[in-house]
């Protein structure tokens, strides 16, 4: 009697746990490669020395030589970005992030650790060996950081501005098929500096990023990449609609902020390329617009701005309005 009762309890417990286990299995696994600069960029920033000549009318002979290890500066940004990217992707709550050491062994075996060159065959092999559904490869293709000094003719006055550029190419692969799902370029820079439009002569010297600025740059870039990855694989969707508000499956740390405006699309029929027979996804028909009013840890609340046809419903896809 006792054995029968225990057996029945075990069966019931198993049935209760099935929904939870099914939900856990739906969470995709993503492998993130270590971020590397392109070979040409790595060579160009190695031990850079620049000379700044003070071309000023009062003292044209004065000059100053400043040596900056640009390679070290770039490495420090990449090291910070490595950790920030893992944190930001994990914070989306959409993926199980694969241990980087596992992926590193796979890429090292295929001599890809330093090049960042990944094709369909490589992506499929990496996915098979690591058990990851998706593979994210990020490569730095541009880095510039220096101070630009302008001397205004006739006045002898000068002004300086910082020139900073940091660019990454991110590629997302479906490891089960080796298919490249998305390739995008992510950029950041010091656009806040006012452009000098008057006629001037230039002298240039290297600047150096502070630790705080490096962390800020890495965090901003990681946020952009992680948000884009989620938007490509799991676009934001409406969970619940109540009166003039909707709840969406995006929360803190996934590129959602109060005041953001999203267009809402209803999903239609699947589209297939007539030439390649490849699925191009489902048709998206714009049905309205919403504005984020509250951001919670896992979800956000948005006010409906436009729903003329009353077509906004659970499952509708949201794309951030430009």
Describe the structure in your own words.
The chain is an alpha+beta fold and 322 residues long. The chain folds into two domains: 28-233, ABC-type transport auxiliary lipoprotein component (Rossmann fold, 3-Layer(aba) Sandwich); 238-320, Beta Barrel (Thrombin, subunit H). The protein has six helices and 15 strands. The protein has helices at 2-25, 39-44, 70-91, 100-109, 120-130, 211-233, and strands at 28-32, 36-37, 49-53, 63-67, 95-97, 134-152, 158-174, 179-189, 200-206, 238-242, 245-248, 261-272, 279-295, 300-306, 317-320. Strands 1, 2, 5, 6, 7, 8 and 9 form a seven-stranded mixed β-sheet that branches. Strands 10-11-14-13-12-15 form a six-stranded antiparallel β-sheet, with no helix packed on it. A hairpin with a 4-residue loop joins β7 and β8 (179-189). α3 (70-91) packs across α6. Residues 5-25, 49-68 and 192-207 have low confidence and may be disordered.
Task: Offer a concise description of the structure.
The chain is α+β, with helices and mostly antiparallel strands. Helices cover 30% and strands 38% of the residues.
